[in-house]
Amino acid sequence: MKKADEQEKLRQIEGGVTAARGFTANAISCGIKNPKAERLDLALVYSTEEATTSASVFTTNRMRAACVQVSEKHQRAGNLRAVIVNSGNANACTGARGLEDARTECRRVAEELGLKVREVGVCSTGVIGLPMPMVRIEPRIAELCAGLAQGKGHAVASAIITSDTREKEEAVSFTVRGKEVRVGSCCKGAGMICPNMATMICLIATDAAVERAELKKLVRECVETSFNRITIDGDMSTNDTCIVLANGASGVRLAPGKPGWNTFRAAVQHVMLQQAWRIVKDGERITKFVTVRVKGARSAAEAKAVAKGVANSSLVKSSWNGGDPNWGRIIHAVGYSSHSVNPEKVDIDIAGLPACRGGVQADTPCDQLRERVQADSFEVLIHLHQGACDHTVYTTDLSPEYVDFNRSEYAYWNQAKQDGLTR
Amino acid sequence: MKKADEQEKLRQIEGGVTAARGFTANAISCGIKNPKAERLDLALVYSTEEATTSASVFTTNRMRAACVQVSEKHQRAGNLRAVIVNSGNANACTGARGLEDARTECRRVAEELGLKVREVGVCSTGVIGLPMPMVRIEPRIAELCAGLAQGKGHAVASAIITSDTREKEEAVSFTVRGKEVRVGSCCKGAGMICPNMATMICLIATDAAVERAELKKLVRECVETSFNRITIDGDMSTNDTCIVLANGASGVRLAPGKPGWNTFRAAVQHVMLQQAWRIVKDGERITKFVTVRVKGARSAAEAKAVAKGVANSSLVKSSWNGGDPNWGRIIHAVGYSSHSVNPEKVDIDIAGLPACRGGVQADTPCDQLRERVQADSFEVLIHLHQGACDHTVYTTDLSPEYVDFNRSEYAYWNQAKQDGLTR
Q1: Most A CBs within 10 Å: which of B63, B101, B357, as the mutation test of the A interface?
Q2: A177 lies in the same domain as A118
């Protein structure tokens, strides 16, 4: 109830990642995404305030992209004030050269903006395993920095997307003791990118003043219940990154236990969850948005394993694509996702109707279930009746078009060959 | 080398599951699979020898089909001599009624053949969650038993398949001190059945005489390196069952350390591996057979996790479908499948050519890799260079047609409705 109260205090605003005061941005077209088309593919977000704090969460994939390694090192050393992002190449599995390229990007931005190198974060998204086309990037960094201006948030949102079908922006504001605080963001999809690397990037910029340690704790908590709750194809990226900058330009200092903190938390949570949902809804060639809610598990780990098991089952996802309310496939995924579930206790509701009771078919007529599953969005509720733990995952169907879309990245390799980056 | 020697002593023979002496079989059409078409869907395999021993391995899915629960109980109580199998309905998630139906099948077979109820095993494969159409099955069991005869192995192979495109039979013989021993089998696919339940069934019948405890040990070992090494879509079935009957009709008694044992082991291993490969190659709408071999892992668990992680990645499988030698997607799946892999040590060979060395692109021209991946069958070798453990998994690509094929089981529900089994 309290959480809902706080959310009511939030106002939707325009401006995306530059909605908050004291943030400028720029985006240009360098031919990384497509050398032939004029598509924005290199972006920069910058906080004009020296007192900026930052917190970041990175992929847990062991194959961490070079940009992730460099950004994490910079984040650990202090606070980021600028973030440079490119799309079209993930700078992942690129070895020592990839690290050098990521560092070069940060160094050049730092030189232009008069920052320390470690105050610059770097994100990349696109194809894995190809060297960065630095020949297209490095000569343009001066221009990128020179063009920084207010109100260019939407260009950043455009520059960071790849296979996404639309820009993803979200911004809210709220008032603390008469002063307005803003939280803005842009992100790109995890629908597998380029065509395909599940590379999720989210940049959030707020004009609240927040201590780094407090910001870090809050960001981790909010990521856990938003971006860590979504899955499209179960493939975790080498590049997933969420960076939050807090620059204090609103003049409002926030801290746990102080006025406005809970609303600030609700604002960050709201922004992340909206963006996470957008990522799912814009998943590659998907047709359904499905909430998988598991209740009554013995442990949080079991609840999570069951929710992810169902959400990642190719068979379950295929049936959703066909509008088939197939609880048999759902329970079969439940059965291989947990070692302690009791089959006779499992209840499954699909789109609000009982589909399975006590592990067997419920009385709901099949056609009624079928009708509900034709909707673009529905919930699958799995009650294990074994304990008090629950977990929710947001996911999609699996379409023939998804597979078709992800069959080949050959075009990218051909381009790299022309750039002299591969044989 | 020794294993290869033993395999050389094996001779391919005809006859499928009734290739060995002392086994009879029958298969009839009951309208379970399709009430309108004359398709064999109820089968029985019977050992005429009283001294028969048996060993079985069942699914580890917590949602175990009623037939699995009943067969396991019977197997534990002693030895099976007959196995009744139906296709079209998996008798899974069918509650108390499903257990009663499975027991009724065993009881009726036992009555007709003069066996104890616990000497009869029961397997079902097909749609999950619908009650068994016992009205179609029970009245036909007398006829099924009456028609038992030699040489009907192929009819059994036909009756147990569902979405498989062909029957799966394998039989070999070898000689021990001048006497011939035979090992025959039939199985059905895990390409997800009916259209879809990943229900693998394998029946193996040998005329060797083997103590139950020895047989059990050998069967578990052979299943571990054959059926447990395959994955098509990562969905583990509620019904997977492998039953081996040994009836001694050859007059040859085999035991560990005695002549012929190693060849017998090689024969069972050969039959299971051939059948496992057939299942993969006949996976639903697949176009590639891919061997994923992981070497140099720190532990057996890590080797297995990485092999399965790569083999089950939708993105990796989609790229294989497109004939795309995408090592970037492979290494990204390696990275999320192990917590201890060192990115800089990973080598990947695709179809015998270096694709990745030390975590970065190898020198092999992309077009050469691409050409090799056009083949129907190739190997992906992932060397982690961290230890001495390895693991191999046999798998497939993921095709748009697979998803399309698995979009709906509605036809089965409609049929069940007509049978009064669902609303």
Answers
A1: B63
A2: yes
